[in-house]
Design a protein that fits this description.
alpha/beta; Pyruvate-ferredoxin Oxidoreductase, domain 3; 6 helices; about 35% helix; globular
Length: about 180
């Protein structure tokens, strides 16, 4: 049985919930069992937001992720809150443009990606979240690139369909890192 438990976390407005939805749809498009559980404060933009995503070959017993296999952190409070919950051997992908926190853990794989900086430099403003998803794809490979593309197509609303192209470019940039 292959199950991947993921927590994505950051501030509201950083696209945490959207990135989680893309991942969940990617798993769904590949015939996996999935759950997507958003959590955000009442402040919305600027408040905290996190998302639990489970992608599994079997039924998902609980949508709540307590000990993730993968953590994507886009701000320091989220990094500090979730880094110790990551399973040994887990993957932490951190937006180093915004997170300067460190960890003493030597039993995890930590990838510091300047995603916000790269997004701004490459004309992908607002897509740091998807750059981090691309890096996650490269390091974990739990779904295919085609699955992620289908997840993007399913997640981007029809009235903003033109944004699917830049989201796919952001995934490719993340995978190249």
């Amino acid at each position: 049985m292959a199950t991947t438990n993921i927590i994505l976390a950051g501030f509201g407005g950083q696209g945490i919930l959207f990135a989680g939805k893309v991942i969940a749809y990617a798993g769904l498009m590949e015939g996996k069992e999935v759950s997507w559980l958003p959590s955000y404060g009442p402040e919305m933009r600027g408040g905290t937001a996190n998302c639990s995503v489970c992608v599994s070959d079997e039924m998902v017993a609980s949508p709540l992720v307590i000990n993730p296999d993968i953590l994507i952190a886009m701000n320091t409070p989220s990094f500090e809150k979730f880094i110790d919950a990551l399973v040994p051997g887990g993957i932490a992908i951190v937006d180093s443009s915004l997170v300067d926190a460190k960890t003493d853990r030597t039993d995890i794989h930590l990838f510091q990606v300047p995603a916000t900086q790269l997004a701004n430099e490459k004309g992908l403003k607002g897509l740091a979240n998807i750059i981090l998803v691309g890096k996650m794809m490269k390091e974990s490979g739990f779904v295919s690139l085609d699955g992620i593309y289908k997840g993007i197509d399913k997640s981007v609303p029809a009235k903003k369909a033109h944004l699917a192209v830049s989201n796919k470019q952001a995934v490719e940039l993340g995978m190249s890192l």
